[in-house]
Inverse folding.
């Protein structure tokens, strides 16, 4: 039986939500990942130091790093680092200096582009953003960007490339992470500027728009940015399988309750947290690239972000894993299907 061990897997783009939803889903990530960059698009978005600290405490409580009296044994088994992000705004340098120890990154959303992003940037006028971006750059805080214009849905990421170029050339010392890239254009942009990096999701490696809307509409595969063309998927797959050093795994696992997905007006987001490592193993194995998976799911992120997660070893085996139909009220990708690889052990 084939076996593959991953050390300190990291998910560099994760939605953990809050409240009851977080209580239901957070352990699915903290079980198999060493850490994750947690997105700040809560309601209201995370924009203050006290909100970031309080949210981190709630995450640690749910992921079990802080043992509780009621459930001490289970809780103390989990070992998971939530790397915090701050929702971008026109912050002052003093504010950023004060918060910099609490966060790993700042997440910039165009206003209204996706779930809970109304408080984002509505005008990408570099001059009006310069003071904040210079401060972010000087403090060496990576800037994660949801890169979509508000144009035609299939062209949104490509249209945003000019903003990436402006950011990358005006702030050469700023580490810019193009989040969840979905196009060949974004892949090509990576090698044009030293300070551009990217995360890639599992679902964008596996699907195109055809899988979402080519036949019966699949609400559980609907996300922002929408999956694109086969040539885009191939370009993403190539850099992920080759473990391009500027590319890292970020699941963008984005849970919504079943009723919000299977609805007239479907919420955007694919829930992959509980199946991500198994499906990645299957994908990399299928292409005979298992040896590169460690770079894609951990080592590249460690170098790009300069982080050193606590030890965690995840042993995967080539044994069938029947994906549950639902986790509480959230339907995962591949619900009810059988994956080729499963998690055997986590230490
Ligand atoms: O599909 C998405 N869902 N894309 C995002 O950018 C946000 C996410 C969410 O928070 O639901
Ligand atoms: Zn996201």
């Amino acid at each position: 039986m084939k076996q593959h061990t991953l050390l300190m897997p990291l998910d560099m783009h994760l939605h953990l939500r809050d409240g009851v939803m977080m209580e239901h889903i957070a352990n699915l990530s903290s079980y198999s990942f060493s850490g994750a960059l947690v997105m700040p698009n809560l309601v209201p978005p995370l924009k203050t130091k006290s909100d970031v600290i309080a949210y981190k405490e709630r995450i640690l409580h749910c992921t079990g790093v802080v043992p509780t009296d009621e459930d001490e044994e289970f809780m103390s088994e989990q070992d998971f680092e939530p790397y915090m992000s701050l929702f971008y705004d026109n912050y002052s340098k003093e504010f950023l200096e004060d918060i910099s120890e609490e966060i790993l990154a700042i997440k910039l959303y165009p206003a209204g582009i996706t779930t809970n992003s109304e408080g984002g940037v509505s005008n990408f006028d570099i001059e009006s953003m310069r003071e904040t971006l210079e401060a972010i750059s000087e403090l060496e805080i990576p800037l994660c960007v949801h890169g979509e214009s508000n144009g035609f849905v299939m062209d949104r990421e490509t249209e945003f490339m000019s903003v990436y170029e402006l950011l990358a050339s005006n702030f050469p010392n700023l580490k810019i992470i193009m989040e969840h890239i979905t196009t060949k254009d974004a892949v090509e942009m990576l090698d044009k500027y030293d300070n551009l990096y990217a995360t890639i999701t599992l679902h964008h490696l596996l699907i195109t728009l055809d899988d979402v809307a080519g036949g019966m509409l699949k609400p559980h595969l609907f996300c922002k940015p929408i999956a694109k063309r086969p040539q885009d998927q191939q370009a993403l797959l190539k850099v992920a399988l080759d473990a391009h050093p500027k590319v890292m795994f970020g699941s963008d696992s984005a849970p919504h309750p079943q009723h919000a997905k299977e609805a007239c007006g479907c919420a955007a987001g694919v829930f992959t947290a509980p199946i991500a490592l198994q499906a990645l193993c299957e994908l990399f194995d299928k292409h005979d690239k298992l040896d590169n998976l460690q770079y894609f799911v951990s080592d590249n992120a460690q170098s790009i972000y300069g982080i050193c997660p606590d030890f965690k070893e995840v042993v995967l085996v080539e044994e069938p894993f029947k994906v549950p139909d639902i986790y509480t009220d959230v339907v995962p990708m591949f619900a009810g299907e059988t994956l080729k690889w499963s998690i055997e052990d986590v230490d």
Summary: DSSP finds 13 helices and 13 strands in the chain.
